[in-house]
Amino acid sequence: MTVIRQEDLIQSVADALQYISYYHPKDFIDAMHAAYQREENPAARDAIAQILINSRMCATGHRPICQDTGIVTVFVHVGMNVRWEAEMSLDDMVNEGVRRAYTLPDNILRASVLADPDGKRQNTGDNTPAIIHHKLVPGDTVEVHVAAKGGGSEAKSKFAMLNPSDSVVDWVLEQLPKMGAGWCPPGMLGIGIGGTAEKAMILAKEALLDPIDIQALQARGASNRGEELRLELFEKVNQSGIGAQGLGGLTTVLDIKVKDYPTHAANKPVAIIPNCAATRHVHFSLDGSGAAELPAPKLDDWPEITWEVGEGVRRVNLDDVTPEAVREWQPGDTVLLSGKLLTGRDAAHKRMIDMLAKGESLPVDLRNRFIYYVGPVDPVGNEVVGPAGPTTATRMDKFTRTLLEQTGLLGMVGKAERGPLAIEAIRDNQAVYLMAVGGAAYLVAQAIKKAEVIAFDDLGMEAIYEFEVEDMPVTVAVDHLGTSVHQTGPARWKEIIAERV
């Protein structure tokens, strides 16, 4: 009988979470590099380049791929011949591993888990508790899959109870435009079919743990309905033209994963869960010989890619930019930002809106300023700030008009598209929205030369900072006329792809 010690599981979970915070799986790197080589849209190709460069930097620097270091999901398969040498429950052991990983001084990971989700929404401080699924299976080992899922991609999950005769393909393609680009494509879609409502969602999440192998499936052909769905959806989703970061292009997904389970005769539960460009998961096995060993990948696994400033790039000094200058910016322009850049995301925006509603003065003057939607990782060593990539901009849409009209805010920087409410407010106020690449947080942080909390310090990573940036790369995503590249880009590339089919 195998004896598994408490400390071995705890340390293995902690090590796994550190490992996936800075190492992409090799299959993901290979697939992303292939997408980079294949991509024809310069904007999408540039976004993929930034993701790959960021990935290599994180692998060498052992810092998080994305500032959103995720909510932890763990699948534990316990062999029935295993005996535990432990005082803690299985859940408590896993959560202690999470706690150690997220508070490790050498690579502090951002704590994003909030207790009392419909009330105080108080940060637990150590990213616990994890979402844990157990299964008793034959055998004498403990098999563990650890994943860290970002909130932006998790927010785009979809579920429906279809009628038995309804088409899964049609439903998935109907949901795709509703998901926008906040899940940071190109990534993967996990699809769960069958069981009950909760089973379908678990199947979709579990499907994302499988390696990228769609090319091998294309070569050998489908042998069951799930594989037929994978092939059909892979082709049709990529024909949508959504592309990297929603900018339009040839690759929207790197793979489609499908898992199914028997279901009731009256039901067809279907779930979609996307995995973003910060794909983070690893598997390890405990056999009683000690903590799991996770081999470091070779740097040769990463392609040598350089990011170059193209012709026509705009260099902008945020300290003296004017509304007149902003009106000259064109959709799709690459802009390098330098100067003082404010930050603020959900909690800070809510607090500012509440203060304005009460007639109170804000703690910072937003007139002719730019605000960056970000919640950075804490710095370590000589860093001024940890990885600081953008968060999903649409969550701030409902606050946008009020801030633009009542504070004189000139522009915003975030991830992915803006919704109709925000676009109308941007157009009406002659403002601008700039997009930074999601999944390139450590690369973005290199442009930040100074960081200081200037308001709402009780909000932790959601406080308002003032960054001093130098040549921070962004794209004009919504110009002062309300033209959105997230609408024009995919539409154009969908037409281009359709002409080739």
UniProtKB/TrEMBL annotation:
Its EC number is 4.2.1.2. Residues 288-488 form the Fe-S hydro-lyase tartrate dehydratase beta-type catalytic domain. GO terms for biological process: generation of precursor metabolites and energy. This is Fumarate hydratase class I. InterPro entries: Fe-S_hydro-lyase_TtdA-typ_cat, Fe-S_hydro-lyase_TtdB-typ_cat, Fe-S_hydroAse_TtdB_cat_sf, Fe_dep_fumarate_hydratase. Belongs to the class-I fumarase family. Homodimer. GO terms for molecular function: 4 iron, 4 sulfur cluster binding; fumarate hydratase activity; metal ion binding. Residues 11-284 form the Fe-S hydro-lyase tartrate dehydratase alpha-type catalytic domain. It catalyses: (S)-malate = fumarate + H2O. Catalyzes the reversible hydration of fumarate to (S)-malate. It comes from Salinicola socius. The lineage of its organism: Bacteria, Pseudomonadati, Pseudomonadota, Gammaproteobacteria, Oceanospirillales. It comes from the Bacteria. Its cofactor is [4Fe-4S] cluster.
